Structure formats: C-alpha cells, structure tokens
C-alpha cells in the first residue's frame, strides 16, 4: 500500500524456520514454519482450529517473538511491535465512545494528519465502505456487518504497508459475509496492498487470495502453498461458476480430508 521506504523490499513478510512454544504448553503452537508474502500480494492462511493461524499473525505484528527462527518484515527482523502493520481481528474492537467518523479517522489523528486532509479521507472511506448516512452513529447503533466495515476502513485508511486480518468476517451471516468479501476484493484491488488473511473458509480463501497457505493441525506446519490463478478484478458470482474454481476447491478439500493432515 504505502511507500514508507524509498525502495520497498520485494518480500513484505518472511518466516524462516519459525517455531513458537508458549510457556508451559506441551507442544509448540507452530513448528519450523517457513513461507513468504510478496509485496502487493493477498495471501490467505487456512487450517484447522488451533493450528496456529492467529499465532502467525501475532508474530507478523510483533506481538509475539519466535522461540526459534526469524520473522522478517520488509527485509528486516521483527524485533518489537510492527507499527507498519494494520491488524483487523475477529472482533471489530471499535472505541464505543467514538462515532463512525471518529473510529475511522483514529489512525490519521495519531499520525497527526492535518484536519482538512483527515476529513477528506474519512469522507472518502465512509463512501467506499458504504456507511454514508451513518457517519455520526456510535458502534452500539451499528449492525455487526457495519462494525466490520468501520474496522476495515480504519485499517486501510492510512495506507499501511501490510494488513493482517484474522477471520474478520467469521461471526457474520452468509449474505453480509459475501457482500463484505466482494467489497474487500474491490478495495484491495484498488489499493494493491499486501494483505495476509486468516480464514477457516475454503471458498473465502479462493475468492480473495493470490496464494493460499495451507497449515496442518497443531503443532502448525506449512503443508502446501497453492497459487490461485484467477485474474483480477474478480467477481465472486462468476468465479464460483467456473470449473477451475471447483478444481481448486477440491484440491484444498482433499488436503484437509487426507489422513496425514490429521496426524
Ligand atoms: N497465550 C497462549 N498461551 C498458551 N497457548 C496458546 C496461547 N495462544 C494460543 N495458544 C495455543 O497455540 C495453538 C495455536 O493457537 P492459535 O490461536 O494460533 O490457533 P488458530 O489456528 O488461530 O485457532 P482458531 O482457528 O481456533 O482461531 C493452540 O493450541 C492454542 O491453544
């Protein structure tokens, strides 16, 4: 998304033989994980519950440190909180005392963006995520889907180097989820940013990503990295009708239903 550095590293994120053991746990959460995320790529991470998907994002965000191995961001080891990363978690985590405008503009305020520019950007993003008319509403007055829209706008508005999303559409109904998936596709295709997106949902991974990183059950290891060949811009409606979509879905499904992934 942004060009914070004069010559951005071609790899936004790289995990090198990363193992993470939580204190007192009887086995590592993830073990010997290596993969990379190219700059400008949309990578989905998929795997069974508890395989370490959130742990991967927490390591990328610098909220956890590897027990062994290294995590690199923009060609440099992550040694503390990665302030270049925007993190959208399962819960929207909006500030209840701030309106939609206030929540969306928070990161710009922290970055001391001049007020006029801030207001322009906020107006733009309110429109982009379809919240016109709700600018002055507070989070408690919004539906779950609207709260997610605010969280997504809040993360993307300041053009972060990388966006980390942890099942952001998890608790939503199927129709709201589909709408938001298409909205995210459109927004991301416009911004051409780097995005790592954790999901349980095979369809969602294929709709959205350039590559799907498939993890095995805990301790999490990388089982496969599958490229998603569909051109952009994508329309979910036409994707699902294509034979290539079913083929890729079946490939992914067979990875999960095969015996050795279950240990
Ligand atoms: N703070 C912690 N202390 C100890 N163990 C933890 C901690 N956080 C996660 N774990 C363990 O690490 C493993 C990986 O957890 P993680 O939350 O990364 O999995 P996940 O794939 O994101 O799961 P889900 O899909 O259910 O959200 C699990 O076995 C979990 O119990």
From TrEMBL:
<dbReference type="InterPro" id="IPR003593">
    <property type="entry name" value="AAA+_ATPase"/>
</dbReference>
<protein>
    <submittedName>
        <fullName>NitT/TauT family transport system ATP-binding protein</fullName>
    </submittedName>
</protein>
<dbReference type="InterPro" id="IPR017871">
    <property type="entry name" value="ABC_transporter-like_CS"/>
</dbReference>
<feature type="domain" description="ABC transporter">
    <location>
        <begin position="13"/>
        <end position="242"/>
    </location>
</feature>
<dbReference type="InterPro" id="IPR027417">
    <property type="entry name" value="P-loop_NTPase"/>
</dbReference>
<dbReference type="InterPro" id="IPR050166">
    <property type="entry name" value="ABC_transporter_ATP-bind"/>
</dbReference>
<keyword id="KW-0547">Nucleotide-binding</keyword>
<keyword id="KW-0813">Transport</keyword>
<keyword id="KW-0067">ATP-binding</keyword>
<dbReference type="Pfam" id="PF00005">
    <property type="entry name" value="ABC_tran"/>
</dbReference>
<dbReference type="InterPro" id="IPR003439">
    <property type="entry name" value="ABC_transporter-like_ATP-bd"/>
</dbReference>
<dbReference type="GO" id="GO:0016887">
    <property type="term" value="F:ATP hydrolysis activity"/>
</dbReference>
<dbReference type="GO" id="GO:0005524">
    <property type="term" value="F:ATP binding"/>
</dbReference>
